[in-house]
Specification:
By secondary structure, the chain is of the alpha+beta class.
Length: about 260
Amino acid sequence: MPLGLFLGGCIVAIPVVTGVAEGVSEQKKQNEEANNEERMIKFNLEVFCGARSPSKDQVHGTIVVLRHNKAWLCPQIPETHTPIPQVEGLSPPLHPFAGFYIQYPDDNRSPPQRGLVSTISDDPPMLNWLYADKETQEIKYGNRTASIEHLVGDWDWTEDHAGLLLEKWEGFVAVDEGEEGKDGLKWALYYDRYDDKLDKGNLVGGQEILEVSLERRVQSAEQQLKQMEEAEKKMQVKSSGGMSSQFTAPAAEAKRKAAAGKKN
């Protein structure tokens, strides 16, 4: 009987100890995340496509832009890394993804998830969350209310910090959605979560699908400083989902690094 009680005690204790250890590990991870200034540095996203398709050249070398609450691929000017509009006179102009990592604010997610935010306009300067739609698998952006029911993370980078990850892998695809009513934007960004080419194309009506990887192009401190100074001149930051503090944090970091660079 004593032996049986002892064994029973061990069986009960193991999950408790394991749970405590996991909690400590997760807390340590969160502390490290909070102190990781590199994750707060803004970056743009450029597209690499190695698919064997006549459409490859329409996708490879493009830049990710945000419009119509979705992420799109757009040709870019190589020297300036700015999008080339396919329709003249767009208002507002196409806005390139310019984001950084930060914990998603949802107490019901355990463990907490690393989110990804981006500016969605320059005037007024605003931030939104990037997420994958749980039904369509489209990469979209929105405030906390719009994003909370969908896949908001974990977002991460590859081992060399060069590529973008979602749920620990590069499962992104570009889908040809045509140009009608989309300001000339043709290729939309999706997350092929189940690695089945979006249910063998059924989710996108049989449209062409190309596998892509997203490469991070980190903005220089000078670029970020210029953007932040211009934004501050226009108006006080507007944001959704409690994002104002997240927007000002990179600004302070950009100013600090720019000042340090001048001293050196």
